Amino acid sequence: MDKSKLKEALRGAGLAVFLLLGAIAVYQLAIRPKAGDLNRYVNLLGNQLLAMVPEGAGKESLAQVYQDFMQKVADREVPPERVERVAAGILNLANREKVITPEQAQAVIRLAEYAPVADSVDIPKGSGPPSAPSAENWEALETRLKEIYEFNEKFREIPPPPQPGQAPLANKVLFRVEDGIKVIIDDEIKAELSRRELHHIEKKLAELDKLNLLRWQKDFDKQLERELQQVNVELERVEVILEELEYQQKEQKIKTITVVKSLQSLDSLAVPIPVNVDSILKEVQKQLKEAGVQVEAPAK
């Protein structure tokens, strides 16, 4: 290749790199949320979710679903409570250190779309639409996600108990959304933390408590078992209703059935996923209406 052609090729390559970097910069600006660290922690949670799914069919689709979710968060199209529900589901799964399917992972994200939130409740006629979450709401969400994510990372680094067969301490932690995301910890491990002189964890717990993000749970295992039983009952109830609706409308595929079945398959991981029957049925009716089908939901 002569020098002139080489220079021309290099200029072309340089232009391509410049355009690529420019495109990346534009993309990053496009998804950057108004609150600085919020997208960072939503992205870190997404990485944790993807890490639980083996390579293969479905993982690329899952990544796209989560990318769409991130974009909605950046554009403030997802209420803060729904962001917290997704975060709680991912953190609970991550602490079990299990392999999950892309369908199970997507179900955790999709379920948040069917959960009711405070800004979507029925309001009296003439009152106008519900107000959007304020900048303060988003900043508070950012703080909660940051504190809870960083706490969980430190907690997961604790070496396993020396006694053989004893469950990792991370199994004694749950994340739940009740007036904001909260850390629920087995009351019985207080002594364990003190005995092992895990002062950095105790300090972090004190910070969470100060922010009203911490709950100590007595009879943790029994309470978890009750929650799992309740979730399974609700999921089975929803599946029966959805299958009846799908039978009535044979030509229509109700995609929420896949979500419900995927959630049921998470049972072995002992992770309670709150289920709201009314919200799921509303989503189903919305799907059918968009398909031009008018149908009343069966009696619950």
What keyword list fits this structure?
300 residues, mainly alpha, 2 domains, 3-stranded mixed beta sheet, 11 helices
What is the topology?
Blueprint: H1 3-31, H2 38-51, H3 59-74, H4 80-96, H5 102-114, H6 135-156, E1 173-177, E2 181-186, H7 190-195, H8 199-210, E3 214-217, H9 220-248, H10 256-264, H11 277-290
Parallel strand pairs: 2-3
Antiparallel strand pairs: 1-2
Helix pairs in contact: 2-3, 2-4, 2-6, 3-5, 4-5, 4-6, 5-10, 6-8, 9-10, 9-11
Q: Outline of this structure?
A:
This protein has 300 residues and is mainly alpha-helical. Helices cover 60% and strands 5% of the residues.
SS elements, strand count: 3
Principal-axes shape call = globular
- Beta-strand content: 5-15%
Q: Kindly name the structural category.
A: mainly alpha
Please provide the ordered H/E string of secondary-structure elements.
HHHHHHEEHHEHHH
* Tally of DSSP helical segments: 11
* Spans of at least 5 consecutive residues with low confidence: 9-35, 119-125
Structural commentary:
- The structure is a single chain.
- With 300 residues, the protein is mainly alpha-helical.
- The chain folds into 2 domains: 176 residues, no CATH class; 82 residues, no CATH class.
- The chain has 11 helices and 3 strands.
- A 3-stranded mixed sheet has the order 1-2-3.
- Helix 5 packs across helix 10 and helix 6 runs antiparallel to helix 8.
- About 11% of the residues have low confidence.
